[in-house]
Design brief:
The protein is built from six helices and 14 strands. By secondary structure, the protein is an alpha+beta fold. The strands form two sheets. Strands 1, 2, 4, 5, 7, 8, 11 and 14 form an eight-stranded antiparallel beta sheet that branches.
Length: 237
Amino acid sequence: METAISQRLASLDWSAIRESLGQYGYALTPPLLTASECAGLVDLYPAEGAFRSHIIMSRYRFGRGDYKYFDYPLPTVVQNLREHSYSYLVPLANEWNRALGLSQVFPERHSAFLQTCASNGQTRATPLLLHYESSDFNCLHQDVYGAVAFPLQLTCFLSQPGADYEGGEFVIVEQQPRAQSRAEVITAQQGQVLIFATRYRPVKGSRGFYRVSLRHGVSRLKRGVRFTLGVIYHDGQ
């Protein structure tokens, strides 16, 4: 039997993950989702009943490719990943807010955080499946859907580089004040999860912490088909 997602999350080295997030703004886990779970999510893509919205990127100049937002209730794999991973990230999210002098305190449980979103008119599910084919790409952006936003999110890699596709690297660009932008390029194996900053992270300077802005995207796919699962913790308007 497959180990429950909650148990797999518990086995991760969260100390190393938090250190990487603090230093680089992202952390890549070992393979977390199984091949069958990845395939099961990919197989959902043609099923319109699972989703609330279908976005063609070129229509909005977001890039090329398309993605679909899940509707509630979320698939079990997505719900478990979103709910159980939140509890490991919320202490760091609150630590970041304190460092930046922000007053918002995120609750310990994800269900309570969704109530905060709802009280601000954010009730629409934001986890999504993204689909890219040859020559598709995703422009640099941030996933913010309202006044309430959790500072961390996940991307789960559902396809295998080399076998399913080439190119299509995940790109994070960090902009420090009064400095040139710095890019990180990540290639991940099927089942791995990338945890990264949604909008910004705190960096300690000589006069305390300051805010560094981050955006993310996907480089041009050179061959094949690439699917990813995006897990955003806040709901949208």
